[in-house]
């Protein structure tokens, strides 16, 4: 195209040329739109309606292509494929797996895995979205609904700490599917398979009635009034320091502040969020946030990953690192156990020993860090559980200092959190007073906490489980209070980079369950220590006094002070090497553990 | 007429009065009084050839001589009071409606095609026979099991 050129787009010649292109595209495309899952959201349908001819001249036989087995998530009807190769490009360029490719030439051309194998990417579900026709569709969603029957709700994913923007498509009281929403700062236009396919877990193993454990050890469904009466009676029989509260990894900020206020009014401050470790210092926001921000990871030229496996902990952040590595040949150094990467990296070591070498500049990778313009150091939140975590953080601080990673224009000191509730919990100050409070607890309030180790809880302790799934902790509970899941409530979540986002209810609450904060508010009234808020607005104005950044929705609030303000640590580093924080990418919380699709994925794709 | 009376007397002599009366009732002769349709079928049956009896007990007759072509096959339903055409099973339907000369008892090529996986037993049409016979979908107010399903599966306490 040249300057001054005139392009005519509405002449009969242009119209005829478009019709010709459409005719070629439709030549081998089957006319099975009425039974195709893409029907109604098909690019080819739209194109042929807009530009196609009103009649076909094709009388020959259409070609047919054998379907490929791409695993439990992606259904293939390869006869519908128009060879646009978007899926091949996505798999190679974004997902970083060389699984898909083009085979054959001419009319024998087809998309496939070169040898019979399933697609082994944690982002494989995205090929469903980018396929313009119905060749790649969602297997769990196959023949379940039509897209025009669905109600879309724009909300937030909570299965990891990224806070991917999603749209929950529901029909009546059922979540039918989950699709990504565009947010260039967080998830771009992709979501992980866990986010996309965990939704069937929302329909299984749900707690729908308050229950109490009666004398013979069985659970009996009771009314809310009776359940509260039982809890309120016990609450006043125990000493304040024997009261412990644990928030789960899917908790929203509103319910966490309610839990903290409730326990504080009872006289206890032993409240924390699981996976944050028993005693985490929440004084400086920069010590637990991804200070670089997810989008700015693209500006980094050297990555140092310490005790984190981003591919399983936060697949979207891993995709961002991969994008950077591909675009700028950024170096990646990794300290931790053997794991899978889908980009070039150097495995520097497995434990704190390598960290000491790096801090003392004895390691070859130190020179890479020294020469780096924008080094990004990413610490895994799995390190929070270690006894020597202060020493690790201090050593990392030393590395960040000599690498000049913390400057006014660049902050390369990052912590990659594991779950959706962690950042908000630390912002709200859910930090336990004493380290071993759970071992002497007489009253334990679990708000959706399923990954907390309950073996240390004394056998005579009274355990209240409030949550939406009968998962793990529920078996230890004395009272079960059913709560709503993230798809059923309005809640505030903060992702690992400090960006506040809100979920919106897509479907009604199941059974007799209630929102988390409402349960705690009602319980406080029955216990005689009424909390001073009874609406979401009121509870948010309470949050404003603690962490005002949680009210600035869709805004990233960076940390004000650098982590170097922390006092010098004299703790010794232990010799234990780092461990993997997430064993199974597909099953990390109560929703994904209840999901059948996730169970299939872990059985098939994680097979060693 | 005389032969009918004669054969009736012979039957009484052979079976005894009580057996004869029971047979009279079972075979629907008593229903002939209020139901002229059935009476006409019974009169038709005289001299006709019994071609076969299906699994429900319906009797299929054929009479070629003296009958108008196209009226020479008929059925006497096993059910004497509430009979209707949907009680004829598919294997006899073809013969009865002059579609084929294969009777339902023969292994006709059509019968060999009966699908094993999804083919189900023939059932008559129960429309108008009362609510308890009619199919109601699982959300229907008249379905007795209408409340035994949920959109979600609740957690069941095991202990």
TrEMBL record, chain A:
Belongs to the complex I 75 kDa subunit family. Residues 150-206 form the 4Fe-4S Mo/W bis-MGD-type domain. It comes from Ficus carica. It catalyses: a ubiquinone + NADH + 5 H(+)(in) = a ubiquinol + NAD(+) + 4 H(+)(out). Keywords: 2Fe-2S, 4Fe-4S, Electron transport, Iron, Iron-sulfur, Membrane, Metal-binding, Mitochondrion, Mitochondrion inner membrane, NAD, Oxidoreductase, Respiratory chain, Transit peptide, Translocase, Transport, Ubiquinone. This is NADH:ubiquinone reductase (H(+)-translocating). The keyword Magnesium does not apply. GO terms for cellular component: mitochondrial inner membrane. It is found in: Mitochondrion inner membrane. Its cofactor is [4Fe-4S] cluster; [2Fe-2S] cluster. One of its GO terms (biological process) is ATP synthesis coupled electron transport. It is an enzyme of class 7 (translocase). Its main location: mitochondrion. It comes from the Eukaryota. PROSITE patterns: 4FE4S_HC3 (PS51839), 4FE4S_MOW_BIS_MGD (PS51669), COMPLEX1_75K_2 (PS00642), COMPLEX1_75K_3 (PS00643). It holds the Pfam family NADH_dhqG_C. InterPro entries: Mopterin_OxRdtase, Mopterin_OxRdtase_4Fe-4S_dom, NADH_UbQ_OxRdtase_75kDa_su_CS, NADH_UbQ_OxRdtase_ferredoxin, NADH_UbQ_OxRdtase_Gsu, NADH_UbQ_OxRdtase_Gsu_4Fe4S-bd, NDUFS1-like_C, Prok_molybdopt-oxidoreductase. Its EC number is 7.1.1.2. Residues 13-52 form the 4Fe-4S His(Cys)3-ligated-type domain. GO terms for molecular function: 2 iron, 2 sulfur cluster binding; 4 iron, 4 sulfur cluster binding; metal ion binding; NADH dehydrogenase (ubiquinone) activity; oxidoreductase activity, acting on NAD(P)H. The keyword Ribonucleoprotein does not apply.
TrEMBL record, chain B:
It comes from the Eukaryota. Pfam families: NDUFA12. One of its GO terms (biological process) is response to oxidative stress. It is found in: Mitochondrion inner membrane. InterPro entries: NDUFA12. The keyword Electron transport applies. Keywords: Electron transport, Membrane, Mitochondrion, Mitochondrion inner membrane, Respiratory chain, Transport. It is a peripheral membrane protein. The keyword Transport applies. GO terms for cellular component: mitochondrial inner membrane; respiratory chain complex I. Accessory subunit of the mitochondrial membrane respiratory chain NADH dehydrogenase (Complex I), that is believed not to be involved in catalysis. Complex I functions in the transfer of electrons from NADH to the respiratory chain. The immediate electron acceptor for the enzyme is believed to be ubiquinone. PANTHER family: NADH DEHYDROGENASE [UBIQUINONE] 1 ALPHA SUBCOMPLEX SUBUNIT 12, NADH-UBIQUINONE OXIDOREDUCTASE SUBUNIT B17.2. Belongs to the complex I NDUFA12 subunit family. This is NADH dehydrogenase [ubiquinone] 1 alpha subcomplex subunit 12. It comes from Ficus carica (Common fig).
